[in-house]
Design a protein that fits this description.
It is a single chain. The protein is built from 16 helices and 3 strands. It is mostly helical and 468 residues long. Helix 2 (65-75) packs antiparallel against helix 5, helix 7 (178-190) packs antiparallel against helix 8 and helix 10 (246-266) packs antiparallel against helix 13.
Length: 468
């Protein structure tokens, strides 16, 4: 009996020693893996500390943010007559602008928008916006050190403001006020610069959305009044600025440093599960789901696995950043052969990476769509300028070089020229889009959105004042 007890104790002791040795080896190996991932980032020239990407404070004389905030405050001020507050005005104005944009032929939509625009605070707010877009920089002083707990109240306001500017541009164009219409279009394009220096993925994607809306405004307004030479030059400059990849790369670096690193160092798995409960399914999980959530907490709490997860996150983020630096068609040519890595490809222990990493192919495709849209608008404006000078649209895009375009912007999905043809006195200009299939200049609709059977199109009408 005594010998059996001694053997059991020795066995347990050996197991404990083996487990401690295995833990030590795994701890060392995971630490080395994390250091290698950090070294790869450093060798690739990516910033390793917030100080390397946070730009110096913008001086008040250059900062557009106070002007935007003044406009937001006016539109959200208390109503002087004690009725609905101006917060309701801002939201109603944004909704009315969206309705008018979708159905400009509706008399009700126009009347609703005009009534809201006639409010005494709205012209003053738009004057502040005009002053804001003229400033060369914008800094809303975001508290990046708060990581995922950081609030971005200006984002919703900028989206509402973009809707208002677009609707104003279209309304002025329909009424024959070309100069006013193009002034609103320019403001809507410049609005994207409000987020140019912001350093998270969310802000990057909202900036892309603001530009995409402004490109649509450019197309719509040009069908009523082609821009003059000076407007075209300014818009061309703004579009080139919008395509500059440096701010987007800095935003990716900021997301890694301020969101990714912050999360690995300061946040528990339980915090994530409570904060993003919607990602886990039901708000009242069953037994199996509860066990899964507890296992994720254990995995995250175990340092060697957390370090392996952290190393994987950094490696994937470096891959994403490096791909952003390549010409679009080089990585897009891989579609159909192999998908870029996403969350579904992550190993079982990568509980944090699964939450923090975006789907690479989705993000890169979204950026490519944006860049394709920018190039379509840039070439379309050149075709409009050609018509103003020569009386007709060019027969082919080669006629735009070098007088109106030099070099010719290429389709980011193919690396080839955009598709162009004259049609019914106007033109059809498009990128093939993600499926890299010529769908004949078919625009995206609610019906074909899921199938992807559409192109990124500018379909210009023959004469001003006529809808395409």
């Amino acid at each position: 009996m005594k010998r059996a007890v001694i053997r059991t104790i020795k066995t347990i002791g050996c197991l404990v020693v083996l487990l401690l040795m295995a833990h030590s080896m795994l701890l060392v190996a995971s630490g080395l893996s994390l250091r290698r991932a950090q070294s790869r980032l450093q060798e690739a020239g990516r910033p390793m500390s917030p100080e390397e990407i946070v730009r110096p404070t913008v001086t008040p004389a250059r900062n557009a943010a106070p002007f935007y905030e003044a406009a937001f405050a006016l539109l959200r001020a208390d109503s002087p007559d004690g009725e609905d507050g101006e917060e309701a005005l801002f939201n109603r104005l944004g909704l009315a602008a969206s309705s008018f944009w979708r159905e400009p032929n509706s008399g009700e939509n126009r009347r609703n928008l005009e009534a809201l625009l006639s409010h005494e605070f709205v012209p003053h707010a738009l004057n502040w916006v005009d002053a804001a877009v003229a400033r060369p920089a914008c800094n809303f002083h975001l508290p990046y050190s708060q990581g995922l707990e950081m609030l971005n109240p200006h984002i919703h306001n900028l989206i509402l403001l973009q809707r208002i500017l677009m609707a104003n541009a279209l309304m002025e164009a329909e009424e024959g006020h070309a100069a006013n219409a193009w002034n609103y279009v320019e403001q809507s394009v410049r609005l994207g610069d409000a987020l140019r220096d912001e350093l998270t993925l969310l802000n990057l994607l909202v900036r892309v959305a603001l530009y995409t809306y402004s490109f649509e405004a450019t197309r719509r307004v040009s069908d009523f009044a082609p821009p003059d030479e000076q407007v075209t030059k300014r818009l061309a400059h703004l579009i080139e600025r919008a395509k500059d990849m440096d701010p987007y790369l800095r935003a990716l670096d900021g997301e890694r440093l301020f969101i990714g690193e912050w999360s690995f160092h300061f946040m528990s798995m339980q915090w994530f599960q409570e904060k993003f409960r919607f990602r886990g399914g039901s708000s009242d999980p069953g037994f199996g789901e509860r066990m899964k959530l507890r296992l994720q907490r254990v995995v995250h709490a175990y340092r060697p696995l957390r370090q392996l997860d952290h190393a994987l996150f950094l490696d994937r983020w470096l891959d994403l950043t490096s791909t952003f630096e390549e010409p679009d068609w080089e990585w897009l040519s891989q579609f159909g052969n192999r998908a870029l890595p996403g969350r579904s490809d992550l190993p079982w222990y990568s509980v944090m990476s699964r939450l923090l990493l975006p789907e690479q192919d989705g993000l890169l495709s979204q950026m490519a769509r944006f860049r394709a849209d920018a190039r379509v608008v840039r070439v379309g404006l050149a075709a409009k300028s050609y018509k103003e000078l020569h009386g007709a649209y060019p027969d082919d895009l080669g006629q735009l070089v070098p007088e109106f375009l030099d070099p010719m912007p290429l389709d980011p999905f193919t690396g080839q020229e955009l598709i162009y043809r004259r049609e019914n006195g106007g033109f059809v200009l498009y990128s093939l889009g993600e499926n890299r299939t010529d769908n004949g200049g078919t625009p995206q609709t609610d019906e074909n959105r899921e199938s992807g059977e559409f192109d990124i199109v500018w379909r210009a009408s023959a004469t001003s004042g006529q809808r395409p």
